[in-house]
Design a protein that fits this description.
2 copies of one chain form a homodimer.
Chain A: E1 2-10, H1 38-45, E2 49-50, E3 53-55, E4 59-63, H2 67-76, E5 83-87, H3 93-108, E6 113-118, E7 122-124, H4 126-142, E8 145-150, E9 161-168, E10 171-178, H5 183-192, E11 195-205, H6 206-216, H7 218-227, H8 236-239, H9 247-252, E12 258-262, E13 266-268, H10 273-279, E14 288-296, E15 302-313, E16 318-322, E17 326-331, H11 338-348
Parallel strand pairs in A: 1-3, 1-4, 1-6, 4-5, 8-12, 14-15, 15-16
Antiparallel strand pairs in A: 2-3, 6-11, 7-13, 8-11, 9-10, 9-11, 10-12, 16-17
Chain lengths: 354, 354
Amino acid sequence: MIHIRPAILCGGAGERLWPLSRKDRPKPFHRLLSDRTLFEDTLLRCAGQGEGISFSAPLIIAGEAIETPVRAGLKSVGITAADMAFEPMGRNTAPAAAIAALLAQKQDGPEALVLLVPSDHHIAPVSKFRETIAAAAPLATEGKIVVFGIPPTRPETGYGYIRQGAPLGEGYTVAAFEEKPDEVTAKAYLESGDRLWNAGLFLFRADILLAELARFEPEILSAVKESLGTDGRIDAAAFSLSPSLPLDIAVMERTAHAAVVPTRFVWSDVGNWPSLADALEADIDGNIFTGDIEAIDCKNSYLRGEGVTLTALGVDDLIVVATGDAVFVAPRSRAHDVKKILAELKAKGPPSLL
Amino acid sequence: MIHIRPAILCGGAGERLWPLSRKDRPKPFHRLLSDRTLFEDTLLRCAGQGEGISFSAPLIIAGEAIETPVRAGLKSVGITAADMAFEPMGRNTAPAAAIAALLAQKQDGPEALVLLVPSDHHIAPVSKFRETIAAAAPLATEGKIVVFGIPPTRPETGYGYIRQGAPLGEGYTVAAFEEKPDEVTAKAYLESGDRLWNAGLFLFRADILLAELARFEPEILSAVKESLGTDGRIDAAAFSLSPSLPLDIAVMERTAHAAVVPTRFVWSDVGNWPSLADALEADIDGNIFTGDIEAIDCKNSYLRGEGVTLTALGVDDLIVVATGDAVFVAPRSRAHDVKKILAELKAKGPPSLL
């Protein structure tokens, strides 16, 4: 049985899920796909044991602004033993990975095995998730920094890609990290068969990760070490000195220890309203209704009301998301552009809406 | 100078303007067309003097449930001297006309001239309104019960019609009151040139109206007399014994004293969202925005937010009305059917939404 310390990152703002997702209750803390929030699903997925691995109590790394929903989520799934660190400002994933590695070492010793996971993705089923982690564990134990790669199912231009190199254990060496492609390139990537989506999911030994950070980004490591209090609080002045970099750039693109393991589970980043609607099961008229909905003669529409009664008559192909203080309406083909609305509101709306 | 006592009826529920119009704040108490509510506009239209007539302080006849918005409306236009009667239950317009006649007699004597006006219509300009009333005043003074008739502008099937008879002063005798017609009949009415819409606007001498009520519907008159307290309160047990009838049926269709005077003003009953949208001035893209609206790439749409920020992206030909607890979305061609939604909510929704 391999013991793994999950480190759950609660960073995703989820702006394309406005008006539901807000600064003080971002995407991970909403019941988007089921009766549980993405954060709660992530906690449960990274708990217990099976498929040869055993998850220890989670580390939670989150912004200060969302301490309340973080604690509520832990409570709602019955997790009482979690080590939490609340960042006073966002510094991207490299400093968060450093925090995770340092906290894990305190609990499990220098070679603590850390699984770094975003909390705003949909992943299923749990057994396939564990299987994937178990397949990568020997590589990580040997000293590889494993990034998981999602086998592409469409020519997606919104994600970074990983090009597989030579076979290595249950995975591959990393031939290259590739930026978000244009459409032609994305199609070529899909056909190549050797590309995987980079979904920001990592498995590594704490000592290896920290050594590579010390080598490539010593300022990140020193700022994080300096800022970390004993109680999970992070000193703002010290932490603010850390460069703001994703782990991919700070370490993965430079290290000789990178490996990639393809995932075996169903994955979605639930990135925007149309993709969420696509992921949910529609009724015979093509509708998906969430909340208090009263609809007559509607088709192919996603209607979601939170704290309000949302009613519609004779609409087709529409997405409507209504909360007590904001409503968003768009055709299904346009709803991914909600950030344009948010940009206007940032310029002139009340901050409570953001 | 002819003195006229306006009696303002606050009865219209305005269900086709849901979710804005509610039981405790119905259609007359919303700012639909301007910065003033329809009730406030009605008060101001029936105040002051000009065109040979002088309006006395108004009588207000309203349901008990809306006493608060009635008092707020009076205050907001600066009317302090109003005689109010709050009905404990709706009994349609014949009992309300009796209340108006009895209250007017107390103030102005037996032959008090009463103008019975709904408070949920749009009428403009005020000068033409006064002109119309002034034209009808000699007929009413002579003992006619005058109903005003709106010259039709379309083959409307939603209103009752009045067929003009022989010329009589500035108006006509009434040849017949005609029910809401089907489409073919409505077209024939429009072409006939002798039909007018019945909009529920009356001018009469109090003694004449009460005499006709005593003759045709003595139970209404006795119930109203019995129920009327000195302080404007109406005894529920006594009032409940009144038959529930519109003035048209109780008196107008039976009396020998009916006369009709065509109106000279612009009139709209602002009956539903599409007709309200049609009455408002659109911007260059055909849009009408009321409230906190953030819209990008929208066309021909009426977006109205009250107490919420309403946002839309790329919608066309849509009506969206959003409040803090309910939202209604429909294509412009369907929005008149909002009562279908309301019927569902009456069956299962929280009463606060009605």
